[in-house]
Amino acid sequence: MISTEPLILLVEDDPADARLIQRAFEKAALGARVTRIPNGDDAVAYLAGHEPFDNRTSYPLPAVILLDIKLPRRSGFEVLSWLRSRRDGLQRIPVVMLTSSRHNVDVNRAYDLGANSYLTKPDTNEQLTKMLSTFDQYWMAYNEHPSLGVS
Amino acid sequence: MAPRYSITALRPPESALGSDRVFRYLVESVRDYAIFLLDPKGHVATWNPGAERIKQYTAGEIIGKHFSIFYPTADRDNGKPEMELTVATQTGRFEDEGWRLRKDGTRFWANVIIIRVNDEDGNQIGFGKITRDLTDRRLAEQRLRLLIESVEDYAIYSLDTNGNITSWNLGAERIKGYTANEIIGRHFSQFYTREDVAAGLPEHALEIASREGHYEREGWRVRKDGSKFWSNVVVTAIRDDEGSLVGFSKVTRDITDRKNLIDQLNQHARELELQIAEREQTNLELEAFSYSVSHDLRAPLRAIGGFSDALKEDYAEKLDQTGIGYVNEIIAAAGRMNQLVQDLLDYSRLGRAALGLQTVNVSQAVAKSLQQLGEDPASIAIEIDTRYAVLAHEATLVQVISNLISNAIKFHEKNAEPQVRIWGAVQPGGNTMRLSVRDNGIGIAAQHHERIFQVFERLHDRESFPGTGIGLAIVKRAIHRMDGAYGLESAVGQGSTFWIELPLYGRK
């Protein structure tokens, strides 16, 4: 069955963090689907439509990407700069960094590479739920989404 | 051998000025030169005023006397006067410089020229003799030579055009170890190292000096005993009045001590640079470490806190009060640990990161601190001229003020409401501004005033007053890094006033 709900791609290697984030999305009872990808290589494969993600119907392009920085194999920065260097429309996908790093260097680098927003992981579930419902409201409800094909 | 110089009688050319009378008048008016004739045996035949002035004899006293009377005894005994006449007879001319005697027996340094005089048929009829008194010049030269010879700190010596040594002073002997007798006549390349000689340095020095007049370098030179010294060398070309090269003067200084000092300084500078590089490397490693700590150490904490929280929320009905209590302990501990890690990171970053200082408006910094703490500004008495600005790192100053305010709010008596007052004042002298934070809290005994600024120092148990024990250590380090001052006035039960001072940047 194919869902028509817009997709949030969560690139997060820490299963505990991923589970707490997914729980927070559930708690907030948000309409969006969340697909989790555990590392940078798979994120690139998913977005590029490579095996095993070559079926766009099963693996549709996301409306927004929640991207961690510290990832195995390929870091969030590498995924981001790969994405922004595309010229097939993929480069327009909004990217929101979601990380535990508050380092200025990381924040600046993320924006330099073309991140649309930078969020740090809150310390409590309550804060996390609050943050993700605001995120959902902004990026999924209010934000105007680009078309992702070549034009 | 035909005489190169000769005077054919003393007959001047036949011209208006050329009469014997005029010529004699000329000779007789000359006072700076003794000009007179000798007969073939060497007896004085004529005399002029110059001769009288220099040698002190009148014409009457001296004419007919043998000219050897002018020579010191030793020269006379050696037959020098006769030798001079022989040379003049054979070659036409004899020139010499040497001591001669006046009538009163005193010596003078004379330049003497003796010329063979022939008659019209080429037969010798006597000698002409011209003598100059060069005593003053001689003494001046001697003084200069003595001066040069007595200089000990500089090796001063001369070379001929080929680079062979022609004079040697005391300084040269002291510095290079050779006596004048040992070294005069030898080539100056002797003082160079084998490598420098192979590289053609001595020739190069003379070439530059003769082309440019002057050559100066520093380099290693070799003493007689084979030891080396670091020298400063100046070579100067010596030219005669016509501009022909006649030799070189060489002044050499032993500046080994200075060289060693400079080498040591350079060595220290290199070591310092190395240490700085190492420290920068260490800082980079620490940066990477703290990065990793903030990332990796806090991830499990988030999980502990997050899942405990989820447990409490999603399974509340399956837990009794004790169970809920345990879960609360876990949540609180994870929260404390998280705060601890955050504070330690802040503290260690303050020790390393360069703080770019700029003007910071003080009342705005206080407002930001209150916002960070989630405190209502209306609950705190604030008296700060809104125009005051200090030189500081803004985020760091905000953190410092936050720490002071949160302490002021935290440490109050159990049964009293916290009352916090913040005020700013320009210090006497007008260069710094003091920001004070006063509370009505429990106060701090004088013996603890120093200690509380140390990392992890706590005066109270956690149940009474929670905290990580890092807040004031951050204040201390931050203020130190911003070239400020800090302190407190407090006594038990009297409340506390913590203050910081920073350079005033004007009223903006």
What does this structure look like?
The complex is a heterodimer of chains A (151) and B (508). With 151 residues, chain A is of the alpha/beta class. Chain A is built from five helices and five strands; from the N terminus they run E-H-E-H-E-H-E-H-E-H. Chain A has helices at residues 15-27, 40-48, 76-84, 104-112, 125-142, and strands spanning 7-11, 33-37, 64-67, 95-99, 117-120. A five-stranded parallel β-sheet of chain A has the order 2-1-3-4-5, sandwiched between helices. Chain A is globular. Chain B is α+β, with helices and mostly antiparallel strands and 508 residues long. In chain B, 42% of the residues lie in helices and 25% in strands. The N and C termini of chain B lie far apart (105 Å). Classes of the chains: A alpha/beta (151), B alpha+beta (508). The A-B interface holds A 14, 16-17, 20, 23, 70, 100-103, 121, 123-126, 128 and B 291, 294-295, 298-300, 302-303, 305-307, 309-310, 313, 335, 338.
Number of strands of chain A: 5
The CATH architecture of the largest domain in chain B can be named as 2-Layer Sandwich
Number of folding domains of chain B? Answer: 4
- Secondary structure: helix percent of chain B: 40-55%
Discrete helix count of chain A: 5
Query: Given the helix and strand composition of chain B, which structural class is it?
Result: alpha+beta
- The chain-level structural class of chain A is alpha/beta
| Shape label of chain A | globular
Mean of residue pLDDT of chain A?
90
Low-pLDDT windows of residues of chain A:
none
DSSP E strands of chain B, number: 17
CATH topological fold name of the largest domain in chain B: Heat Shock Protein 90
Shape of chain B: rod-shaped
The biggest sheet of chain A, with number of strands, parallel, antiparallel or mixed sense and barrel status, is:
5 strands, parallel
